[in-house]
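TL;DR need structure tokens for one chain.
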Amino acid sequence: MASTETIPVIPLVDDSEVCAKQLVDAAREWGFLYISAGSDIPENKIARMFELSKKFFSSPREEKQKCAISENNRGWSSMHSETLDPQNQRRGDFKEALNFGDFVDGKAQQPLPASLIEHEVELAQYQELCHNLCMRLLRLFAIGLEIEEKEGGKDWFSSRHDKAKGSSDSILRLLHYPAIPEGSDYIPEVDIRAGAHSDYGSVTLLFQLPNQDGLEILTPNGGGWKPVPVHPAGYEGPPPILVNLGDLLSYWTAGLLRSTVHRVIFPPHSRVGGDDRYSIVYFCHPIGSTHLIPVPSEMVRERGNRGANADTKVLTAAEHLKGRLAATYGWKS
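>> reply
TL;DR here they are.
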């Protein structure tokens, strides 16, 4: 496909083959794409989730510590506890986060912090909205890849993410990148808010606030780091939802759909130490028992012996994720 200079904004006006092709083209070129704000998730719901995020992160450390992250990837991770690029970071990421696993019948399957207990229903509803949007995107990717009808057609990916069939490792994550106080042990040329990494799962949704930039992608073909603005040029209205593809979907498609390395920096135009930055992320993963077998698509087969097309040992989605988390947090896999 012809190269584009910027990550495209794709309005999800329908589930047509035209829309599906636009998604696949963007995923092949960038691994990232924007979809219009309000696409399946009302803007007021997004704003409300940011309110709850700020409420949690402003609570005392002692309260947050009661829900500390465990090896199931649920809970609160403190500043510097996560190191996404251990080979190139002198210390962990300058951020804190709260991870929610799947909700079952509207109930969290993990301890909730005191500040969010009364908002359990809202959290569950928001996660469901995110999951449903990802299911729609997965169906569109299947249409765009022309997956054979006899093998499942448009439902090939989404059926492997159906929560009715089993538990998954999908995560709703609230993120806070605090401003760094003056006089702290912080080196602007070295330290980073989130180290360079690719995402682990299938599809990621990123929700951002206006004027809180800092995301960069490592552009294809050796183009170096490129800022990804909250508001793409010419786009008006609330920030669009940013979508990126994870390692599993890239592996499944023999690298046809790109999983792009990205990071979060302290914006060069901000004051030293940056300003507070908040974001919300939904990491969509398949059912844990899903076998990562080749995708039945001629477009994928043409990629040859790459990814799932080449491996003789078939991993499950849960096994793949466990290895990645072990590297990130220093856990034993």
